[in-house]
Amino acid sequence: MPPEKPIDELCINTVRTLTVDAVQAAQSGHPGAPLALAPAAYVLYTRVMKHNPADPAWPDRDRMVLSAGHASMLLYASLHLSGYGIGLEDIKSFRQLGSRTPGHPENFETPGVETTTGPLGQGFGNAVGLAMAEKFLRARYGAEICDHHTFAICSDGDLMEGVASEAASLAGHLRLGRCVFLYDDNKITIDGSTDLAFSTEDVLARFRAYGWHTLSVDDGNDLDAIEAAIRDGMAEEDRPTLIGLRTVIGFGSPRAGTRNAHSDPMPDEMVRETKETFGWDPDETFVVPEEVYAHWRTPTMQRGADAHAAWRKRFDDWATANPELAVEWREAWAGKPKPGFGASLPTFEPDAKGLSTRVAGSKVMQAFGAFVPTMIGGAADLVHSTFTEFEGHDYFTPEGAGRNVAWGVREHGMGAAVNGLALHGGIVKPFCSTFFVFTDYMRPPIRLSALMNIDPVWIFSHDSVAVGEDGPTHQPIEHLAAMRAIPNLTVIRPADANEVSEAWGAIVEELTGPVCLVLSRQNVPTIDRSVYGAASGLRRGAYVLADADSPDVVLVATGAEVGTAVAARDLLAEKGVQARVVSMPSWELFEAQDAEYRDEVLPAGVPKISVEAGSTFGWAKWVDASIGIDEFGRSGKGDKVLAHFGISPESVAERVREHVAELARG
Question: Exposed end of the chain (fewer CB within 10 Å): N or C?
Fold first, then answer.
């Protein structure tokens, strides 16, 4: 058993030895950072943070993000010792299949984990979004019920990643106080010393240039200095704080201060030596002294319960004094719009000229905006192209917290921060927007939103080669296929204004998980629904828009190409070919329907051909042949570029006739 030592040291060394034992049992993991950062975690969880292990979802808790997610055992050990319901058996099953202690923290697996962190820098951006959410909700509802801090632990690797730079720049601009990051400055990366690639940068000077408050702690084992720096950061209301914490990776082990300490399990003799350094019996594993539980868990849980109870009392008093706001708060935390949302959604009259679906999206947002008062978001310096703002509402600025966010040209950081807004709670369907081609810059946060099953809305305009003169760099080709390949992401590409309205209705009222809403730059006809199928069919993913008594072919189209397919249908009829047109705005929603409905829409035995101005990859799941674009675009007028690639009624009709004739010949 551990010898008698000061209780603080005993608690910290328990985190360290649990880490060593878990990594050794798994023969996998990253022991170096937890050995170094155990004192910082101890200070956060036992001295500083306002949290209630009995209710990890308490709205007014402090948030703690381990952006350096490879150091997951630091978090798991701290949560176990704090009383979060993670048992010692969970620690023993670290990194095993089905475990609640996976290799990197997963917010859907482990109580007390605020966000899924793994790809470096993402957690940093999430934490910025969490701090933005706190500022917005505090401004709207008052500090009586929203008054907490966001903490994060980040590494050299996090701060080398561009996403962290983007998020840090935004946080400094917005002057996000109540935001305290500890930077594990250990001078080591996987390949060796940071001097290999990170030798000239003064990190704290960089963050001061971003507008951050910076502090330094020279000894990562000095508990009082760590606490003082954190509290100094908490007291800073007008700037986010970065604390440079000098640590020794793999502290206490024979590998201390070396690259080998980062992620390599130690040989058994080194494990013994490390435990002996901490005063532990090397022949015992997963030991937690009772006095550690008594000192760490009992008071932590009591303080959390007391703080939570005090908040509940404040909330009840506030709710009594502000009944309408209290209803709104509860609806927002439940992720629901106000009553009347559905009735607010507009219906658009038939119009052959029509309008672009991006403009239709703006009109729909203006109509329902009042019914989702905590929906916030904006564009990556493209609001005048994507039209994603709530007109007449304030911007989120250094001085205030309006619902419109000017993200700047920071697509990657924007995506990570939007995930943080969604993770916080109380922010209904946060969103961001840019051109569809820039999903290339945003795939990591989009993928993580799907992994976590959270509710951001990813809005993209300029969805095809119809972008036109900006040319192939700005013309998405493979992007629909790439988004559809992400599990648990619902991709919706509406055909006209009424499908846009239905899409937003589904997003806010029905769908869970992230949605990718893909909109056109060019005008598309507003379909006459008295003649063609109802736009409500969008909510089933695909529906029969125009039918024939005995169709020779089924044209399956999405987005702007639905109008092209309808026009091609008329040309085919003149040549004696009867076509059904199916609007298929969402593969994922259609896949969720029962087989009977899917077979009704896409009947067996009838040739099916897709029409979409993008990669044909993946369409073989639904159709027999595809009309699309499997090469990069061209610079020119949008309609000319579409025609060049055969996306016109005449070209589609001709290719369909050829396909039907070929089938007839056998």
Answer: C
657 CB contacts (<8 Å, ≥6 apart)? 572, 575, 577
Instruction: Tell me whether residue 411 is one of the annotated catalytic residues.
Output: yes
Q: In this predicted model, what pLDDT tens digit does every residue of 3-49 receive, in sequence order?
A: 567 999 999 999 999 999 999 999 999 999 999 999 999 999 999 99
Do residues 59 and 318 lie in contact, with contact meaning Cβ atoms separated by under 8 Å? no
b/e per residue 425-445 (b: at least 16 CB within 10 A): bbbbbbbbbbbbbbbebbbbb
State how far the Cα of 521 lies from the Cα of 138, in Å rounded to an integer.
Answer: 37
Residue 338: count other Cβ atoms within 10 Å of its Cβ.
16
Q: How far is CA 154 from the centre of its chain?
A: 18
Residues with Cβ within 8 Å of 525's Cβ and at least 6 positions away in sequence, in order, are 351, 352, 353, 354, 496, 563
Tell me: domain 538-665, CATH 3.40.50.920, correct? Answer: yes
Is the distance from CB of 245 to CB of 183 less than 8 angstroms?
yes
List beta partners, residue 557: 583, 611
pTM score, two decimals? Answer: 0.98
pLDDT confidence of 2, banded at 50, 70, 90? Answer: low
pLDDT at 225: 98
The closest of 408, 411, 405 to 435, measured between CA atoms, is 411
Q: Residue 552: its pLDDT value, please?
A: 97
Q: Which two tokens stand for residue 378?
A: 């904006």
**What percent of the chain is predicted at pLDDT more than 70?**
99
Query: What is the residue extent of each domain of the chain?
Result: 7-306, 341-525, 538-665
The bridge status of strand 608-611 relative to strand 553-557 is parallel
Is 442 within 8 Å of 434 (Cβ atoms)?
A: yes
Q: How far apart are CA 626 and CA 480, in angstroms?
A: 14
- Better-scored residue on pLDDT, 638 or 661: 638
CATH topology of domain 341-525: Rossmann fold (3.40.50)
CATH number of the domain located at residue range(s) 7-306 in this protein: 3.40.50.970
Distance in angstroms (rounded) separating the CA atoms of residues 310 and 312? 5
> Residue 320: which residues within 8 A CB-CB, separation 6 or more?
none
Residue tagged 């919706």 (tokens): 492
Q: What's the rounded Cα separation, in Å, for the pair 414 and 439?
A: 12
Q: Which residues pair with 155 in a beta bridge?
A: 184
Question: Same CATH fold, 538-665 and 7-306?
Answer: yes
Q: What is the pLDDT of residues 586-612, one digit of tens each?
A: 999 999 999 999 999 999 999 999 999
pLDDT digits (tens, 9 = 90+) for 137-179: 999 999 999 999 999 999 999 999 999 999 999 999 999 999 9
Q: Which helix (H) or strand (E) holds 63?
A: strand 63-66
Nearest to 374, CA basis, from 314, 333, 324: 333
Total count of residues recorded for the chain = 666
Question: Which of the residues 114, 134, 161, 411 is marked catalytic?
Answer: 411
Four-residue CA torsion sign, 565, 571, 573, 576: negative
